Structures are given as C-alpha cells and as structure tokens.
Amino acid sequence: MTERERLVVVTGRERFEGVTGPEAPAVVAGRDGSAAVTESDGSAAVTESARLAVLTELERLTSLLPPPGRPSAVVWEGVVASWGSRLPADYAAFMDLYGPGTIEDCLVVEGPEAWHERLGDGMSAESRTARLTWDKEPEGRFATAVPPRLVAWGVSDSADILCWDAASGTPEEWPVVVWNRHDGCWTRFACGMVQFLADLIEGRVEPVPPGLESLDGMQIARMIPQDELRRTWAAGIDPWAG
C-alpha cells in the first residue's frame, strides 16, 4: 500500500465504515449530495469536502513529519459522549496514522481521553488547566464575543497549552488556540490542528509561541510514539540521543 493509499483509508469513508460499537458513525448524504458522516450521538457530520481537506493537509504533514512505523494504540471509548461532540476529523486521522507521542522532544500530542472534571492526566487534565487559566488570567485573553470552550490536544515542554476553541461551528471549524506561558497570553490561529503542525514545521506560523520556536521552520521533524518513549526511558535509554 502506498502512503497516499494509506491516507485515503485513514481519512476516507473506509475508516468510518470500519468502526463498530457505540462510538460508530454512520455514512449519510448531505443536502448537496456529498457523503457525510454523522456520529451516533447526532453531532455534526464530516462532509466530503472536509474529508478531502483533511487528506490534503495530512498528506502535507507526512512529508514534514514522517509517520512512525508503529503508532501507539488509541482508545476512543467514551470520548464522544463525555465531550458532547466528536473531535475534529483531522485529529482522528492523525491519531490513526501517528497516535499520541512527542515531536522533537518539544511538543506532546495528547491521545483522546474522556473528559472528567477531576481525573485524567492528558487531554482532560490539560483542558482543565487551560480553562482555569482563561478564567483566572483575563489580561492575556484575545478579544471574543463568545467565551471559548477549550479542549486541549497538546502541550509544549515550556508548558504552553495547545487547544481547540470548540465554542461554535463543526469540529472541522474549531480554530487552534495556544496559551503562551512565557508571555502570559492566548493566541488564536485560523486553522485546524494538522494544518497548524504542518505550518509550524514549514515556518509559516505567525506569531510562533516561544515554547514551539525549536520546531519553527525545521522542515523535517521526528515524532516518537508514546509507547516507544515509555519503553526506552524505562530501559534507561534516551530516545532522542543520536
């Protein structure tokens, strides 16, 4: 299977039709006749145009961030129900191809995790921290008519938090917002997670959060899956050495 064929399977209808159980989405037709995917909870569908956009951005990212041979396993059970919506299609496709892990010992991309107000140590915990920061530090907020609904998907080694603003729109329309711990401010980017990562590695993000400057314009970056990191550190080996 070629890389493009693999991407089609990951982001195309084949991926959704291969899911079973309570989290499984169903393929339906949109008003314009395009294929779409509706989650079992009735949340917004992934349209054909959005699916193709995901494919385009993910294909660009793979040329900048080669996927690992063995991505870490991902558990989606309970995620949609707890957050009240599915997560963006580009994130789901990224998890299929890369899984959770760390990019260049700088940026941790969190795996999906059910929301909980007190428990959890990844997506849920970082989301709680992001929401608390927004509430407690108003001087760093960007101007917005509607307060953001922050869902964290990443954290830098400088404690910057990378989120979606899930307050409105379909998940594919959720913009990336970043808490810059160094400057104590939030920045909103008019793109999704996969485009943000590709733009960052290509040197197209402006402004670049200080905690992510080492990735800015790198052109080719490396990601190590979460499971591999745990194994190598447990063995006393620095996975980033050499």
Description:
The strands form two sheets. Strands 9-8-7-6-5-4-10 form a seven-stranded antiparallel β-sheet. The chain has a three-stranded antiparallel β-sheet with strand order 1-2-3. A hairpin with a 7-residue loop joins strand 2 and strand 3. Helix 3 packs across helix 5. The chain is built from eight helices and ten strands. It is globular and about 45 Å long. Helices cover 32% and strands 17% of the residues. The N terminus is likely disordered. It has 242 residues and is α+β, with helices and mostly antiparallel strands.
Share in helix: 25-40%
What's the count of strands?
Answer: 10
The largest sheet has its strands arranged as 9-8-7-6-5-4-10
General shape: globular
Largest sheet: 7 strands, antiparallel
List SSEs in N-to-C order.
HHEEEHHHEEHEEEEHEH
Mean pLDDT: 80
Radius of gyration: 17 Å
C-alpha end-to-end distance: 30 Å
Structural class: alpha+beta
Strand content: 15-25%
Low-confidence stretches: 1-42
Oligomer: single chain
Number of helices: 8
The gist of it:
This protein has 242 residues and is of the alpha+beta class. The chain has helices at 3-11, 13-17, 48-64, 79-83, 89-97, 123-136, 193-202, 226-234, and strands spanning 26-29, 35-38, 46-47, 101-103, 107-109, 150-156, 161-165, 176-180, 185-189, 223-225.
What is the topology?
Blueprint: H1 3-11, H2 13-17, E1 26-29, E2 35-38, E3 46-47, H3 48-64, H4 79-83, H5 89-97, E4 101-103, E5 107-109, H6 123-136, E6 150-156, E7 161-165, E8 176-180, E9 185-189, H7 193-202, E10 223-225, H8 226-234
Antiparallel strand pairs: 1-2, 2-3, 4-5, 4-10, 5-6, 6-7, 7-8, 8-9
Helix pairs in contact: 1-3, 3-5, 3-7
